[in-house]
Write a structure and sequence with these properties.
It comes from Smittium culicis. InterPro entries: Galactose-bd-like_sf, PITH_dom, PITH_dom_sf. Keywords: Disulfide bond. This is Thioredoxin-like protein 1. The chain has 192 residues and is of the alpha+beta class. The chain has one domain: Jelly Rolls (Sandwich). The chain contains three helices and twelve strands; from the N terminus they run E-H-E-E-E-E-E-H-E-H-E-E-E-E-E. The radius of gyration is 19 Å and the shape is elongated. The chain starts with 5 loop residues before the first strand and ends with a strand.
Amino acid sequence: MQKVDSFSGADPKKLVETIVKLSSGEASSSKPLEAEFPSCPGHVNLNQFLIKKQLECLNYSEKCDPQNILNTGESFLSSDVDEQLLFNYHFSQPVKIYAIKFIPTKGFAFSQFLFFSDAESMNPTDSTELTEEFYKSGGIFKVKFVRFQNINNISIFIEDNIGDGDVTSLQNITFIGTATQQSDFSVVTAKE
C-alpha cells in the first residue's frame, strides 16, 4: 500500500480538506496509484482479510508452511501423499471474490471446512481445468462472480496437477475482489 498524504492533529476541517483533495486527484504525488491486477480493474488483493490462524491445509508436506503461499516470494507448498491438496480459508469479514490467482481445479463458496470425501462428492461452486499456457499468461482465474458474493469461507480442492505427477507444488494463492465492509481509512493517516 502506498502512503499518499498525512497530517497531524485532530482538525476536522483539515481532515475534510485532505479527503476532498485526495478524492479529486490532487494528491501530493502526481503519479496515479497503479492497479495490482490490471486484468481485474477495481479489485484488490483480499489476502489481507484472511485469518491466517484459521487456515487449514490437508495433505501438505510438513517441510512447508501453508501460510507462506499467501505471500509472494520464493516459498512454495507441496502435497505429501499424492497430488491432491485441500485448502480451507476464513475471511475476517465478508468479501466478494472476483478472481483467484493460482488456479484450483475446484472451488467451493459458502462451505464450512471440507474434507477430501466432501470435496470429491460435492458439486463445486466453480471449477476449471488449467493448462501450462494458462499459468504462463498470468494464472488469474475469474470465478463466476455472482456465486462468490458475501463470502466468509472458501475451500479450494486441487484434484490433480499438470502432467499427472505424484506431487503438486504451489508458490502463491491470491484472492482478488472487494471487501463488503470497507473500514480501511489508511488513505488519510493522522499523527498525534
